[in-house]
């Protein structure tokens, strides 16, 4: 059972934490700019005052003018409950909560799905699984079908992935099924599978996709094909085998092996016979003409009020057509008598229910005031390689109410050196059209022994230390930030965000307590314009466009010489070329201005676990008096083929192009027995980037690539040597991605082109997803 508790029960201490909460991204792209948050919006035009009624097995939530819809939904759901659970062979342990909207337009205002969805094989499954939202369209039959389909789909998810957060997370690492499997079973349960028009639609969809692997089919076609497969199983092998296959899938984790083991035939033979079954002429549309130009009609068998389409099957020895089985005459007479009695409104006490099942009398209680409950919706743990503090573990907890109008985010990043950590928490309110929230973040950086892996931090501070230098210091850097934000959506895809903030920075020399601590306090604001129309194509693969323009300005209370600003543009586009080949492109640009502009660093790969640092040949030895600028370093993204920190400057320009080829989309998932193979992806890429200082652009001779400091320190001579090179670095190569022990791992092999010379190739191993 999921840990649920009401908002009213949250303690005073927890409420204080909410007031200080962290719901927004960190102050800068400190971990991974490629994982920058974008996100769509939902626009609220009105506020819903929810009421609740409860039936035997469901909870229905509705608002003004929706009482009749809720009553009708209760009758439908309870009337179908026994049939659904019997067909699935599974009864959920939790009460499903159903949110009913009076129209599709009002459903579009719902925030459900925005907070913390988890991707399970291309479908978005929110961990608050025991809920459904449905809009009433005015069509009773359509409403009934949608309600049954949603209930069935949720029951299957609960059956396959478990009822608790822990079970879902464990199952999601091991169990992946194609889209036809999940969408098809709910469509089969809710559909009129004997309807000639439905059968014709199945047949047409199968023919349209005859050259495709069914595992790669998406959307409505996947649903119809899945419906046809489950219908074929029911007709050919009996409905009892549906529950057998579902239960076996949960145990052995593949749909192909489950079908093979249950039905006793090879999967390839099953698929062949399924296609031949629908290719049979008996499934031609009822509107198609027969040779004599008369309307061809399906065979109908009428038994009083019972009308059923009879399907004639070619049966092998020992097989039984369970749907059209002819009973003994005595049983037929009894059945007719029972039907006649039922038609006349008569009742009989001789009806014997199936063992262990009984038909409950519909009971509806309420209405009650809606009880807003909070759930633990998402728990994540991931390894991150901080550019300054190296390897650490990031843990995130997301909690929200069922409607996702309120969300709480708690997070902790910690390294083996406990003094290196981030703590953040926050609160978001999405009740009205203007979303708002507050957040707080604390970052601690401890610098002790510095060697060639860390001395790059001093280069933007004008100290170019020899490569072999080892410095022993004891400095603590602290960054504290409190901010609020308001987000106004112009449409579902476009929004504007304004965020005032109060920031403090500190540099403490622990080894010299007599030294005065360096501290500054900034008052600032952030403005963003965000566009995002992307949609998931399949697991972790998007199509569409997302872009963000961000402007930060910070004003120091101490002196205007510390003021600075930064503008960032990040635009991405994902396009499906053919099959499952995806072209992904990213453009990243930033510029920092003011009397104390901040630095962006380029080179290497984000979250790299084998990074190599750009070597230096400087002669200056020492430690900068003020290290607080390190707190504001920005890391722009991947520039493969070069060392980490190859370039730096107050401005940067970077483009990334990738061709992505997921293996699982071309191979039957049932034949891929490991999660490693199912998530295997091949990538070809090219990166082009540069960074520079000042306002003259990248071709200015005075940039980090063209400028070298010689001398200084103990050498009495110090000179700045400037040459001219092409400022743009080009990296290209190929890579593979997959999942290992639940973590997404990348390996890239790249060459770097610098000033018309190709550098020796480099291998990069890194963690986390691509942009």
TrEMBL record:
Keywords: Signal
Annotated segments matching region Disordered: 286-313
Biased composition (Basic and acidic residues): 286-299
Signal peptide: 1-27
Domain of life: Bacteria
Protein name: Bacterial surface antigen (D15) domain-containing protein
Annotated organism of origin: Emticicia aquatilis
